[in-house]
Amino acid sequence: MSRILIVEDEFVIAQDLKMTIEGFGHEVCAVITSGEDAVIKSLELRPDLILMDIMLEGDMDGIEATEMIKQSLPIPIIYLTAYADTSTLIRAKATQPEAYLLKPWDERELDSTSKLALL
Fold this sequence. Notes:
Helix content is 45%, strand content 20%. By secondary structure, the chain is of the alpha/beta class.
């Protein structure tokens, strides 16, 4: 069973995502709402995969958190966000994510993308 860290600051979306991921047979090791906490918990929990929103609570967005996490750990990260503007995509691409999925997500797409990232 893969351990997945969810980084999402909207409670309802985070809970829906948690139920979806658990329905795929994965364990959600934590749900985090800020970029700063995502970095700390990633180092502490060492999940197999991180689902990362871009706009988060706190001063650090998901892209900055991803940069910091990837400096220390080779954890695959999938962005799951509502933002698809060019500047955000350019910033996100520089962090070499496994995927960039737009909200609202399609369950089959999320499942297949997660499985590929976990290979």
